[in-house]
Design a protein that fits this description.
Layout (H helix, E strand, L loop, with lengths): L3 E7 L2 E8 L9 H21 L3 H18 L5 H24 L3 H18 L2 H17 L3 H12 L2 H5 L1 H17 L3 H17 L15 H14 L3 H14 L5 H17 L3 H14 L7 H17 L4 H16 L2
Antiparallel strand pairs: 1-2
Helix pairs in contact: 1-2, 1-3, 2-3, 3-4, 3-5, 4-5, 5-6, 5-8, 6-8, 8-9, 8-10, 9-10, 10-11, 10-12, 11-12, 12-13, 12-14, 13-15, 14-15
């Protein structure tokens, strides 16, 4: 029978992700699970470079659909659960892409579906992934109490008891929620818990590819966000510098976001010229790709704070001119 493929298109580039195989007369087994999981790895790499976009979201949903179709012909209950796990992670990938693109309604629908599938799979790491994205979506929508609740739900998953790295991520995400809620003490306490848990994590533990982004560098980037939210601009700047020294080059979107956080920390210390020069690097890092909606929103925050803090600065006026030019060409 004829094979089909689903493709993810990326601004002039078309990347094959996962081959979809038409119905076969034999039972579905481990080979099919491995094939589909390799597609998840491809999507994760694409997200790290380009950020969330609709082509990635569509490819992820196609992968989830294929996994669910195959589980109907699974050779065993164990294979069924593994396919449910794959479907949960594809759906969570689609949800994260929508979060990064600031498509909140679609993101919420995908997250609710992913949580159901993770439950069917009995996969606590997938559950952690969903609650992590729920916390980020709630932060985007300024629902800070819900962001804390989602972070604490992530802490309650079995994944955090099995792997200190998962526990660290859950505490770090909760710290952001507390900081946005204005609870300085709880935010700093959650950061300490995140640091302590990460110190216990083994770098050699096998983990899903989506978790590869998290480690000391990402915790420093989150620390910069928390410190900025609670008004510690100098500490936020220091954490941002350390994060940028450690974030791997292939995480282009994350490096751009950390650079923007550094620019905000410099701006909030009234170092206008340096802040504008740093913010310029965001466009350099993301050159050739459309800016994800989340990054556009943070650039808007920088623009507004720059206007408030330095309304008459010539450097600020020049940066805002470039911002408007880049904005019009980066869609």
């Amino acid at each position: 029978m004829q094979r089909r493929n689903f493709l993810t298109a990326a601004t002039g580039t078309t990347a094959a992700v996962v081959p979809l195989v038409a119905a076969r007369p034999y039972a579905v087994g481990t080979t099919d699970v491995i094939r589909l999981r390799s597609g998840l790895d491809s999507l994760t790499a694409l997200d790290a470079s380009k950020g969330g976009h609709e082509a990635l979201e569509r490819a992820a949903l196609a992968g989830a659909s294929e996994a669910l179709e195959l589980q109907k012909r699974a050779a065993s209950q164990r294979i069924r659960q593994r396919l449910f796990s794959v479907a949960a992670n594809y759906t969570a990938s689609a949800a994260w892409s929508a979060v990064d693109a600031r498509q909140s309604d679609r993101a919420l629908g995908h997250l609710n579906r992913a949580l159901y599938l993770a439950g069917m799979a009995k996969d606590p790491v997938a559950e952690l992934r969903v609650w992590n994205s729920h916390a980020m979506l709630a932060r985007q929508q300024h629902r800070h109490v819900e962001a804390v609740d989602a972070g604490q739900a992530a802490q309650a998953t079995a994944a955090t008891r099995r792997d200190p790295l998962c526990a660290s991520l859950a505490h770090a995400r909760t710290a952001v929620g507390h900081a946005n809620s204005g609870d300085r003490r709880s935010a700093l306490r959650s950061l300490v818990h995140a640091e302590e848990a990460l110190a216990k994590a083994s770098p050699d533990e096998p983990r899903p590819s989506w978790l590869a982004f998290y480690g000391p560098a990402e915790l420093l980037a989150i620390t910069a966000i928390v410190r900025s939210r609670i008004g510690d601009a100098a500490e936020a700047e220091a954490a941002s510098h350390r994060a940028l020294a450690a974030i791997p080059q292939q995480y282009r979107r994350n490096r751009a976001l950390a650079t923007l956080q550094l620019a905000l920390a410099q701006l909030h210390q009234r170092d206008i010229d340096q802040a504008c020069a740093t913010a310029d690097q965001v466009f350099v890092l993301m050159h050739g790709n459309a800016l994800p909606g989340r990054m556009r929103s943070h650039l808007g925050d920088f623009y507004r704070d720059l206007t408030t803090l330095a309304p008459d600065s010539s450097t600020a006026r020049e940066w805002k001119d470039r911002y408007r030019s880049e904005w019009s060409h980066a869609r």
